[in-house]
Amino acid sequence: MFNRTTGLNILLDEILVPSTLWDRAPRHVSIALTNLCDLHCAHCFAPKSSDALDFNQVKDWLGELDINGCLAVGFGGGEPTLYPRLVELCRFATQHTRLAVTLTTHALNLDNQLLADLSGNVHFVRVSMDGVGATYEALRGYPFSMFLDCLDTVRYIAPFGINFIVNNHTLQYIDAAVKLAADVGAAEFLLLPEQPVRGFGGIDEITTEGLRQWVSIYKGPVPLTVSEAGADGLPTCNPHPSETGLLALHTLMRQAA
């Protein structure tokens, strides 16, 4: 059972469904609409080229995913707000499929017009925030105050979460970042331990251990999740232990307050 507006997903695991009736599609599929991005973050994997997916091809994929039991699609990039027909695509998915629509964005292009156009056609927004204050500005190249203004408007169109790259520059600000997430009403705080890009960068062992210690004592109000690539050594909660295959995100075990 899945409600795309609230995100409520109920698994009745005492019911054994014959394999012939299993859905063929993954629960969630992420689609990088474009490689374009107007930022130049050193840790980003996107090649910043002008390559983009064909609009009609993506529409066909959405129809196939819906028919085969997929629950949600996530549009990212690059920066998906630079995809010329983003609004049209989100509107199609919402009006012509049963898919929930999520968006991963730096949020800096979400002006009032775009937010109005996306309202009702996006069910969850993941907003990238690396560090706070001067650290964010050094990594992203935009005023942190501008980012905060964007957060203040995003929350009025859909529930949202914060994506937080963890490396030796940002770990020291993680408490401030979580507090900010709670203050602005974020529904999730996604930890993204930095991965090497083209053989460079990546989270170091000292920072990794510091993150593990921080998670072990975390008692904050915002639920934590972590990328599959960065989940080693963290107390993840897997609701589907008998499943195999690709994973993207893990929910972290909650500590008692």
Helix-strand category: alpha/beta
Q: Could you give the order of strands across the largest sheet?
A: 1-2-3-4-5-6-7-9-8
Kindly report the average pLDDT value.
89
Evaluate the radius of gyration: 18 Å
Going by CATH, the homologous superfamily would be Aldolase class I
Global geometry: globular
Question: Roughly how much helix do the residues carry, as a percent range?
Answer: 25-40%
DSSP strand content: 15-25%
Total domains, how many? 1
Q: What is the CATH-assigned architecture?
A: Alpha-Beta Barrel
Oligomer: single chain
Number of helices: 7
Give the topology string: H per helix, E per strand: EHEHEHEHHEHEHEEE
**Largest β-sheet summary:** 9 strands, mixed
CATH top-level class: Alpha Beta
CATH fold topology: TIM Barrel
Notable traits:
17% strand; alpha/beta; 9 strands; TIM Barrel; 257 residues; 9-stranded mixed beta sheet; 7 helices
Describe the structure.
The chain has one domain: TIM Barrel (Alpha-Beta Barrel). The protein is built from seven helices and nine strands; from the N terminus they run βαβαβαβααβαβαβββ. It has 257 residues and is an alpha/beta fold. A nine-stranded mixed beta sheet has the order 1-2-3-4-5-6-7-9-8. The model has no long low-confidence stretch (mean pLDDT 89).
